[in-house]
Design a protein that fits this description.
7 helices; Phosphorylase Kinase, domain 1; 23% strand
Length: 238
């Protein structure tokens, strides 16, 4: 952790000398998300400053996947995190859903791409834990999963998550202290997201019919053992 703290101090100095803030995108009690620009190249990036666990961001350093943002720098000091990541240009699903719902074909394509990003994330033993329309950006034809502030590394032998994080309506039941979250928690959230994309509503209010309805139903089982085992099995079902 001492090395991470040293990187944090170095990163602060670099941000002050070489970058200029453009605007704040999100502010919460836990921290902020800002758009910044490199003074020399005019290239834009996302700067995250938040309190909490930033281990997944550090795990993602050097990872390249078109369905995940590139993490360029990540450091922590006494629970304070600094992250510089790729600025993904596009519209969020939340914004697009205000105009219309998605077709089954579009939904399958987007969910499969999110599964590809999650396969990379899950292979690092990381769980996103906050999949929702606001955290998915469509960049052209590519779906990109963003915001890993609530993400955690799965730790064998731990009975429950140390901190309850996630979004009500999308978070799996186990995220509320029933057991430790694993990859199947993200599968639950994908099922909710899929139903919202197809109907505009949570499955508790309106469930999509047909084959995709059966896929949603399996994704959103209360018991994780009854969900798809991993995102590869979910992709096959789609």
């Amino acid at each position: 952790m001492r090395e991470v703290a040293v990187i944090y101090t170095w990163l602060l100095e670099i941000l002050e000398k070489e970058y200029e803030p453009l605007r704040t995108l999100k502010q919460s009690p836990r921290g902020s998300v800002s758009l910044i620009q490199h003074a020399a190249t005019c290239r834009r990036f996302i700067l995250r400053r938040f309190r909490g666990n930033g281990e997944v961001y550090r795990q993602m350093l050097g990872c390249t996947c078109k369905n995940l943002p590139v993490i360029y720098e990540a450091a922590e000091r006494k629970g304070e995190n600094l992250v510089i990541e790729e600025f993904v240009e596009g519209d969020t699903l939340d914004f697009l859903l205000k105009g219309a719902i998605f077709s089954p074909r579009e939904t399958r394509q987007i969910i499969r791409q999110l599964c590809q990003g999650l396969w990379v994330l899950h292979s690092m033993a990381a769980v996103h834990r906050d999949i929702k329309p606001e955290n998915v950006i469509l960049r052209g034809t590519d779906a990109v999963l963003i915001d890993f502030d609530a993400a955690r590394l799965h730790k064998p032998g731990v009975e429950a998550d140390t901190q309850v994080l996630g979004t009500t309506g999308f978070a799996a039941p186990e995220q509320y202290g029933l057991s430790q979250s694993d990859a199947r928690a993200d599968i639950y959230s994908l099922g909710i997201l899929m139903n919202v994309m197809l109907t505009g509503k949570h499955p508790s209010k309106k469930m999509v019919k047909g084959h995709l309805g059966r896929v949603v139903a399996r994704c959103t089982q209360v018991n994780p053992e009854k969900r798809y085992r991993d995102v590869v099995h979910l992709m096959a079902a789609l």
